[in-house]
């Protein structure tokens, strides 16, 4: 993959452009009018200019747009190709697709960037992924559920989806760039806040303040991440954010914005079908997300909680006990029922692995591969709803 | 796929009509032309070769036997062959009450028990509720003998043999002379676990500090090999718990 190093760019690229500040200065709520023609200048902008320049220059050159104008969208071959490749409906115009490719880092004006579409799309994606995960694996612990959601709908995963769609980034955003390229640049803090959650007063205490899982459930964002306060200084923020994080955020916002556009133009069912075929179709093995601390104790507590007999490790078979590479097969039994089995080069390792397998077998219980999710009920002629299995919660 | 399943009945409708047309030796060629099938179906040769002849029921030994908790000792063929246990297979007791798999396994076990019972005692006797209950009791009696041997390892075996006086005594001894009355010695005296001693009668702070300093001094004497081995062991344990080993 080609690696872009902003630190090695020349000074021309890193300098702030002349007109970049004007759209950013607008508040998101006020109606932003952008004049595409060079002859007329909006009254609000001309009033801010100093009198000498406005009087001397008869037709001052308008500042270049931060991103390509939507008038050029129908002419872009890349946009048409992307539209066809995703087999989007005819109801979605190319201009909307072009807008989905403009990130807030390129054009801070919320009337021209994809922030709103991306937020709408992210809520749709997260809803569908969450309902699928909760119905498919009803016993997943909360931390694993967050990571599974991140694996499906996190920025890194969505970036991979966007790359597979063939979305490419422009070297730098600008008016002259093809509108079929992703417009983004690093080092620009997001003007529009698309992450919703609560910022606690305790967060000011720093790392010392303990942040439990239940607080992540109640207070934090969809992925259980802490929402950072935007009031901190912008310069330190941009330094702190990694280039890769910003890049995956930009690419991820394209996927979210496309799904938001589908929802806007085509409706709920189309958006659900699109999420299902592009995001939920990706394979995830949740058994690899687990990390245990004391598996033997956790299993004993599980058996005590559920009223099973206490787990007992039994040596099922062994080979080469006196050799350099012995193999032991240990099974965990609760009464006569076998819970799990593990192999290892020592008795202790085999026993711990067997405990981990048993715990995973508990957590990864699934009612079946074809689970019904609540949004299936919105289809016309849906069968009556049967409640899915709801677990009482985690062990420790 | 959907299209094909929809089209198949249509082609079946067209088929007999074509035969009729052929039997009537087609005085009018135009009707025969009309009845040419619109859908090209797969010929007999291809389907028979690639689908039908390969559709075979698996051998009985390939079906997993859920009758016993684990395969019998005299079994030679293991089908499916030995492989690592997958967490995708939920054990019987982990299935929720309303899961259909639970009922299926229960029915299978009952059938197996009944079969065993009838072969051993009396084949003519019909299976009833009383015989199934007796067979399950028999299976329970036989089951313990069939299970593999228990491993010997440290585990929680609560005895609940200590009273408040015992614990006060334990605390007094520990506070008096923590060097003599170590955790192991107290555990041996009161017949409880060391963890319980550590919880019920923690050592005074200066004794713990002294122990920690002693450990530090010991660690300082370790060479590079032993230090690295310790770190590797810790890393291996983490990898094990992440499922990477």
From TrEMBL, chain A:
One protein family per Pfam: DSRM_MRPL44
An annotated Gene Ontology molecular function: double-stranded RNA binding
Superkingdom of origin organism: Eukaryota
Cell compartments where the protein resides: Mitochondrion
Main location: mitochondrion
Disordered, as annotated region: 40-72
InterPro entries in the cross-refs: dsRBD_dom, Ribosomal_mL44_DSRM_fung, Ribosomal_mL44_DSRM_metazoa, RNase_III_dom, RNase_III_sf
Swiss-Prot/TrEMBL keywords: Mitochondrion, Ribonucleoprotein, Ribosomal protein, RNA-binding
Sequence ranges of Low complexity compositional bias: 40-59
Domain RNase III: 79-267
GO-annotated cellular components: mitochondrion; ribosome
CDD domains referenced in this protein's UniProt entry, alphabetically: DSRM_MRPL3_like
Record-linked PROSITE patterns: RNASE_3_2 (PS50142)
Gene Ontology terms describing biological process: RNA processing
PANTHER family the record matches: LARGE RIBOSOMAL SUBUNIT PROTEIN ML44, RIBONUCLEASE III
Entry's family note: Belongs to the ribonuclease III family. Mitochondrion-specific ribosomal protein mL44 subfamily.
Protein name: Large ribosomal subunit protein mL44
Phylogenetic placement of the source organism: Eukaryota, Fungi, Dikarya, Ascomycota, Pezizomycotina
UniProtKB/TrEMBL annotation, chain B:
Gene Ontology molecular-function annotations: structural constituent of ribosome
InterPro entries: Ribosomal_mL58 (IPR024388)
Keyword Ribosomal protein set for record: yes
Keyword Ribosomal protein: yes
Keyword list, A-Z: Ribonucleoprotein, Ribosomal protein
Pfam families associated with the record: MRP-L20 (PF12824)
Residue segments, region Disordered: 45-65, 110-158
Composition bias, Basic residues: 45-54
Compositionally skewed regions (Low complexity) per UniProt: 127-142
GO CC terms, sorted: mitochondrial large ribosomal subunit
Protein name stated in the entry: Ribosomal protein MRPL20
Organism (species): Trichoderma parareesei
């Amino acid at each position: 993959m080609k690696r872009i190093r902003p630190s090695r760019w020349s000074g021309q690229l890193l300098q702030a452009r002349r007109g970049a500040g004007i759209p950013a200065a607008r508040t998101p709520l006020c109606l932003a009018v952008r004049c595409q023609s060079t002859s007329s200048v909006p009254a609000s902008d001309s009033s801010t200019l100093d009198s000498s320049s406005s009087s001397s220059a008869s037709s001052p050159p308008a500042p270049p747009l931060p991103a390509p104008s939507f008038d050029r969208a129908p002419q872009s071959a890349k946009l048409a190709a992307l539209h066809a490749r995703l087999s989007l409906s005819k109801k979605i115009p190319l201009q909307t697709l072009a807008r989905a490719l403009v990130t807030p880092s390129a054009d801070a004006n919320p009337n021209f960037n994809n922030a709103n579409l991306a937020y709408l799309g992210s809520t749709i994606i997260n809803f569908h992924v969450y309902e699928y995960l909760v119905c498919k694996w009803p016993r997943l612990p909360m931390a694993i559920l967050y990571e599974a959601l991140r694996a499906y709908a996190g920025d890194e995963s969505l970036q991979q989806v966007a790359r597979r769609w063939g979305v490419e980034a422009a070297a730098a955003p600008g008016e002259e760039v093809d509108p079929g390229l992703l417009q983004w640049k690093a080092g620009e803090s997001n003007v529009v806040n698309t992450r919703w959650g609560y910022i606690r007063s305790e967060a000011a205490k720093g790392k010392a303040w303990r942040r439990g899982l239940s607080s992540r459930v109640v207070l934090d964002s969809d992925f259980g991440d802490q929402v950072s306060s935007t009031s901190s200084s912008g310069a330190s923020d941009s330094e702190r954010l990694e280039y890769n994080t910003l890049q995956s955020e930009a690419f991820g916002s394209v996927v979210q914005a496309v799904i938001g556009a589908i929802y806007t133009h085509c409706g709920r069912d189309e958006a659900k079908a699109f999420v299902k075929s592009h995001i939920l179709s990706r394979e995830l093995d949740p058994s690899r997300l687990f990390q245990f601390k004391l598996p033997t104790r956790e299993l004993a507590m599980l058996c005590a909680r559920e009223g099973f007999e206490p787990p007992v490790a039994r040596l099922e078979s062994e080979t080469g006990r006196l050799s350099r590479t012995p193999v032991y097969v240990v099974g965990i039994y609760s009464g006569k029922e076998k819970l799990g089995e593990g192999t290892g080069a020592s008795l202790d390792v085999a026993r711990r692995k067997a405990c981990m397998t048993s715990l995973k077998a508990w957590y990864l219980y699934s009612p079946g591969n074809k689970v019904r999710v609540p949004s299936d009920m919105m289809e016309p002629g849906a069968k009556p709803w049967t409640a899915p299995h709801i677990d009482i919660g985690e062990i420790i | 796929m959907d299209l094909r399943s929809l089209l198949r009945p249509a082609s079946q409708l067209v088929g007999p009509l074509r035969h009729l047309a052929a039997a009537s030796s087609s005085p009018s060629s135009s009707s025969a032309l009309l009845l040419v099938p619109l859908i090209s179906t797969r010929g007999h040769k291809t389907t028979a070769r690639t689908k039908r002849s390969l559709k075979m029921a698996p051998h009985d030994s390939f079906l997993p036997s859920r009758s016993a908790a684990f395969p019998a000792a005299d079994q030679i063929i293991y089908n499916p062959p030995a492989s690592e246990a997958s967490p995708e297979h939920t054990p019987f007791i982990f299935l929720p009450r309303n899961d259909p798999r639970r009922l299926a396994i229960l029915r299978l076990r009952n059938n197996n028990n009944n079969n065993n019972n009838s072969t051993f005692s009396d084949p003519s006797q019909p299976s009833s509720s009383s015989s199934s209950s007796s067979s399950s009791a028999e299976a329970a009696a036989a089951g313990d003998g069939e299970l593999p041997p228990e491993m010997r390892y440290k585990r929680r075996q609560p005895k609940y043999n200590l009273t408040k006086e015992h614990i006060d005594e334990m605390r007094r001894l520990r506070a008096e002379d923590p060097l003599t009355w170590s955790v192991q010695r107290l555990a041996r005296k009161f017949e409880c676990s060391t963890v319980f001693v550590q919880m019920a009668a923690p050592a005074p702070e200066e004794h713990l500090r002294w122990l920690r300093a002693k450990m530090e001094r010991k660690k300082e004497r370790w060479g590079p090999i032993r230090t690295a081995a310790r770190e590797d062991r810790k890393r291996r344990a983490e990898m094990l718990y992440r499922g990477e080993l």
